[in-house]
Amino acid sequence: MEVRHEWNESVTAQTWHTFRPTVTRMGRALRDESPGYHHVVTRGNNKQAIVLDDDDRWFICITVDRIALRYGWRIVAYCLMGNHYHLIILVGDKGLSDGMRDLNTAIARQFNVKHGRINHLFGKRFWSRRIKTYPSMLSTVRYVVQNPRRAGGTKPLEAYVWSSYAASIGLTYARISLARDELLAFFGSDPAHAVEEFRVFCSARGFT
Known about the structure:
Oligomer: single chain
Radius of gyration: 22 Å
Number of domains: 1
CATH class: Alpha Beta
CATH topology: Alpha-Beta Plaits
Strand order of the largest sheet: 4-5-3-6
């Protein structure tokens, strides 16, 4: 934030108390929406719940699939928590913000109608970060699928059905259409070996 002072030679020690600074606000930084992998997080308003039951979770999953198809996204990993959700999206030429606007508007409208609410479901605009390096991609995927553990869960990662982890290792179907082969390619060219490498990597404690 830049503070610009209105100052001239007539200002003296006796008149300093009449001085009024003017503040120039900084606009929001432009969001990087260039094609590539993006980690996206949307949180409930004041950290409040964005899902109250499995029907709410299914609606988010179905809506992500619909928006992904419209905007040419590929979902590499996801995790739905009680008061926020994570997506790792391979974004194409249609960008990110328009799709996220449509996604969160649909989720909020459905939630409010179903549960008789009128207030904002989500707080600030969604957070996103473009993933620019191979190590960052790996650590971000691990961070996303480890979210239930970070929230205090003690079950194996594959027990959390609203995370993409179990589907990525082939134990169940994905709740959101998943670019599984694309993810596993980061862990090796042989599918079986890649799954094992992915399991080992995700079982380790992450640092992001």
